[in-house]
C-alpha cells in the first residue's frame, strides 16, 4: 500500500525547496561581492594598466543574472500555475496515476 503525501507535506517540501534555492542564490551573490572587489584590488596593485578583473566580474555577473532569473524571474509563476492545474485535475480524477 502506497502512502500519499498530504497537502501540508507537499507545501512543506515546496517551501523547503524554495528556501534552498534562495539560500544558494544569496550565497552566490555574497561570494561575488567578496571575491570581485578582492580581485579588483589585486589587479590595481599589481597591473593597473590592464583591468583584467573585469573579465571574471562580467562572466560571474552573467552567471548570477541567470541564477536570479531562475530563482525569481521568468517562468516561475507559469510553472507554479501548471503544477497547481495538474494537481487539481488529478484530484478530480481526470489524470490517472500509475
TrEMBL record:
A Pfam family per the record: 2TM
Transmembrane segments: 25-46, 52-74
InterPro entries listed in its UniProt record: 2TM_dom
Keywords from the UniProt entry: Membrane, Transmembrane, Transmembrane helix
2TM domain residues: 14-88
Protein name: 2TM domain-containing protein
Species name: Chryseobacterium panacisoli
Amino acid at each position: 500500500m502506497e502512502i500519499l503525501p498530504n497537502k501540508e507535506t507537499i507545501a512543506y517540501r515546496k517551501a523547503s525547496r524554495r528556501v534552498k534555492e534562495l539560500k544558494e542564490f544569496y550565497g552566490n551573490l555574497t561570494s561575488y561581492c567578496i571575491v570581485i572587489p578582492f580581485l579588483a584590488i589585486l589587479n590595481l596593485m599589481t597591473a593597473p594598466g590592464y583591468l583584467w578583473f573585469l573579465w571574471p566580474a562580467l562572466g560571474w555577473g552573467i552567471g548570477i543574472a541567470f541564477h536570479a532569473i531562475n530563482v525569481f524571474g521568468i517562468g516561475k509563476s507559469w510553472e507554479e500555475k501548471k503544477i497547481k492545474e495538474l494537481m487539481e485535475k488529478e484530484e478530480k480524477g481526470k489524470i490517472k496515476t500509475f
